[in-house]
Design goal:
- The chain is 29% helix and 27% strand.
- The protein has 313 residues and is an alpha/beta fold.
- It has a seven-stranded mixed sheet with strand order 10-9-8-11-12-13-14, with helices on both faces. Strands 1-4-5-6-7 form a five-stranded parallel sheet, with helices on both faces.
- Helix 3 links the parallel strand 5 (87-92) and strand 6 (126-130).
- The longest helix has 16 residues, at 67-82.
Length: 313
């Protein structure tokens, strides 16, 4: 019996439509047609305007707040499942709610676990994501998870800058592993910032572990929200004698006064990706597109080829 060739189709959620188009271009496909209907009260309904029966479906959308972004992904997964798609892959460049990966105090949810179950219940048969806030979130899923690293884009960019007296830094203890991985590739020293929080997004104290005097520092983090930690760390390092401070961050949430903090800080540059679209431009923010990374992985997934190289930080 002849083997049936499974067709691959790519669709985008509205919050990530520009990135989805770029991924489709790199993949060599046309973005599929989805119609979004909206009721007067705000309720919305996605509809695939083409047959997807028996196909491999890639649905691209980051799930950053508001919760409508997550809801849109869930509804599209459910629609694909009910339309008899054979394989349904949720491509989530930024996996939202990932900071709720454990019970850090009594009577709180483990939000990341809940989101994982919702995605699987909605119909996802595979997840492709990038730089999760915590690696253990992969274990919240019963379906395969391809966890990609943006370092495959950042490290060549940093290497090409030919920075003298380079030191890699982590803005907190949790990012130490990531900082050491970058330092190993760039053959540099490592420094760590130790911070204490008064409450979420509010730092009460920060201290530096390591020497930055006479160094050009690159801060490495997975996300930047209010930019309070990042800019405070940059200012502290300049006070301690650093020659310059750049920052590398995968997911530019940039909420609240983040843009103003970055502009007013001593950061030379913030290098990030387009996993989340910027709400406005800044001369200090350099965006590297992750479209080619996701397109390559999606191609290999569809043709059952190895993607092991994309897991290496």
């Amino acid at each position: 019996m002849a083997k049936v060739k499974i067709e691959a189709k790519i669709f985008g959620c509205s919050q990530s439509m520009e990135l989805a188009k770029n991924i489709a271009d790199h993949y060599g496909a046309t973005l599929g047609n989805v119609l979004f209907s909206r009721y007067s009260d705000g309720e919305f309904q996605p509809s695939f305007e083409e047959s997807i029966r028996g196909a491999r479906i890639f649905i691209i959308g980051s799930t950053q707040p508001s919760s409508e972004n997550l809801m849109e992904m869930l509804l599209m997964l459910d629609a694909a499942k009910r339309a008899s798609a054979r394989h349904i892959t949720a491509v989530i460049p930024y996996f939202g709610w990932a900071r709720q990966d454990r019970k850090d105090k009594p009577r709180v949810p483990i939000g990341a676990k809940l989101i994982a179950k919702l995605l699987e219940s909605a119909g996802a048969t595979r997840i492709i994501t990038m730089d999760l806030h915590a690696d253990q979130i992969q274990g919240f899923f019963e379906k395969p998870v391809d966890h990609l690293f943006a370092s495959s884009m950042f490290l060549p960019y940093l290497k090409n800058l030919n920075i003298d007296n380079l030191t890699v830094a982590s803005p907190d203890m949790g990012g130490a592993k990531r900082a050491y991985a970058y330092a190993k590739y760039l053959e540099s020293d490592v420094v760590i910032c130790y911070k204490q929080r008064q409450k979420a997004n509010v730092i009460s104290h920060m201290e530096l572990i390591g020497e930055v005097k006479g160094k050009n520092v690159v801060l490495v983090d997975d996300m930047v929200d209010t930019a309070g930690t990042l800019t405070k760390a940059a200012d502290l390092m300049m006070e301690r004698g650093a020659l310059s401070v750049r920052a590398v961050c995968t997911h530019p949430l940039l909420s609240g006064s983040a843009y103003e903090r970055i502009e007013e800080s001593q950061l030379l540059e913030l290098i990030t990706t387009d996993s989340i679209p910027l709400s406005k431009e800044s001369k200090k923010i350099k965006v590297l597109s992750c479209a080619n990374l996701f397109a390559e992985v999606m191609t290999n997934v569809h043709h059952n080829k190895s993607i092991a190289k994309k897991f290496i930080m």
